[in-house]
Structures are given as structure tokens and as C-alpha cells.
Amino acid sequence: MQDYPGPMEVVVVDDSPQASELTTAGNVPVRYFHLTKRHTIGEKRNMAVSAASQSDADVICIWDDDDIFTVDRLRQQVSRMFARNASCSSIQVAFVAVLPQKGRPGVLQRCKGMPLPFENSFCFRRSWLEERPPFTNSSLGEGNALFEGLSDWYSEAQPVPGEELPFLYIRTASSTAPDDALEPYPVRSMLLAPKEGAARLDLPLLALARALRRQRFPELTESCPGAAALVLVRESLKAALEEDLQAMSANVADSQKLAPTYWKALCGPGPAPGPAGEAPEGSRNPDFAPENLNLENRPPAEVDSDPLPPPERALELLRVALRGL
């Protein structure tokens, strides 16, 4: 479902007890390897990278089976890496969707940050990886070895902020990363209430809601593994928007004045493209394609006579947006 314009190949390494019957769409070639016994995540990453390296691919991108990325993930990440002349790229894990387990309901959580990038979003030039150590034989922190001896891993990994390229890190009962590695906390509102003073906006969370509203995530049928996570996230964000509308209508913590900016972050025109060579955000809806988002040809739902409406009008528009989330 990716909108990447160049040639792609998919390599699948699977150590499930039973081999899968892969269903693919389009003309993307797929190489599937079913392993006869269980392996660590690090071992499987090395196997997949080794298989990918046997092709003529310039770039290798890691994609864990349970995480959900936007349809423009590859195009966005590769364009940023090349525009910045970087060898490696990663995406900030800003949101964690915890699926229901052991009688506990599912929950959408924010991630406070981590000391190193998570391997599940790595994208790198093949030539760079050939000069680095392999993934370690582990299922936790298996990618740390790639950055050993580097004085500035942040510059090397080129993390893309979560508000620019949101994705959903999915936690299930079998997830290996502990909570203290992710530092998650529940999502209840897109308004941040400080200990004192006025409220402010949670822009990364609004970016996630915006991505869902603009159909930037893939459309998954009910039988797809990630469908339940997308439903959970959508319901959580709707509940947060409803709570925020009540708070702004009552002007809690002087929040009503934030309504115009809140609306613009959720519903306004797309952000301006980044430095030369970086791709604009995508969508599976052609109405939201970058070339169709000029002022003369913008979808009616996105148009308002004032690009930043007054608070009362913004609240009305947000109530309409709630129905479309």
C-alpha cells in the first residue's frame, strides 16, 4: 500500500510454527523465508538484511510485522535521508497502541522518548550497513551495536519527528520491549494543561489525528491484524477531541483561544514541504494528493473563508471534523 514511486522488493522472514500463505497486491516481488525453529529478533533481522543485500537494492528498510506506518512511509523516509545526505534514518516512536490483553482494555499511549532509536523504523543505505556490526543475537536492543563507536548517534540515525511521520508502535502480549524502555503514558486530551497558566496544544498527537483524518494510514479490512489497532486509536482520538471541545467551549484554563490553531493543525492545509528533495505528506485519498492541495482546488471540507477562523467558528468546524475522524 506504499506510494513509493521507485522499484521495491519485499523480503519476509517468518519463524511462526506454520508457514503463511502470502497475499500480495500489485507487482512488488516478494521473497518469503519460513524458518523451522524460533530465532531472536536480531537473528531474524540479520537474515532478512542478508537476503535483501543479495539484490541490487540501494536502500534497506526494516518493517516489523505488527507496526502500522502511513502509506507514504518509504517515500518520506528515503527522501529525507537522501536530502540530508544521511546514511541511516529512523522514526521517533511517539505513539504506542496497546491492544486488549488479560481482561484489560486497549489504550493509546504517548511515548516520552528513548535514549536510542528503535530498530523497527530503521532505513539505511546498504553500503552503510556493510561497514557496521550486525544486529546482536537478542530480542531487545539488538540494533544498539550498529551505533557503537559513533560519537553522535543522533546525527547518524537522522530521526524523523513523530509529528512529521506518525506511525503506530503496536504492543501485544508477546511484545519484547518493556514499558520502561518506551516510557508510555495514556492519551486523554490533545490539550496539555500545565501546572499553572494557560493550556497549550499537544501537536504530535494532533498530527496523528490529522494523519487518520486525511487518510494517510492504509485502509485495513477487519481481518487484517492491524485493523483492531487502528479502530482503537481512532476511538481514543475521538474521545480526546470530544473532551477538548467541552473544555474549550467552557474556556477551561483559557483554552478557547487555542481553538483556531487546534482546527488548523487538525484540518487546515498541509504543511509546507521541507528542504529541497524532501517529500510532502501523502494520502490514499487522491483529493489529498500534494498536487491537488492548491487554494483553487482544495477539497470542500478543507475550505473556510478565513484560514484561521475566530474561536467560536473554529469550535463549530471542530465539531464537524469530529464526525469525519
From TrEMBL:
The lineage of its organism: Eukaryota, Sar, Alveolata, Dinophyceae, Suessiales. It comes from the Eukaryota. It comes from Symbiodinium natans. Pfam families: Glycos_transf_2. Signal peptide: none annotated. Coiled coil: none annotated. InterPro entries: Glyco_trans_2-like (IPR001173), Nucleotide-diphossugar_trans (IPR029044). Residues 269-312 are annotated as: Disordered. This is Glycosyltransferase 2-like domain-containing protein. PANTHER family: GLYCOSYLTRANSFERASE (PTHR22916), UDP-GLCNAC:BETAGAL BETA-1,3-N-ACETYLGLUCOSAMINYLTRANSFERASE-LIKE PROTEIN 1 (PTHR22916:SF3). Residues 5-95 form the Glycosyltransferase 2-like domain. GO terms for molecular function: hexosyltransferase activity.
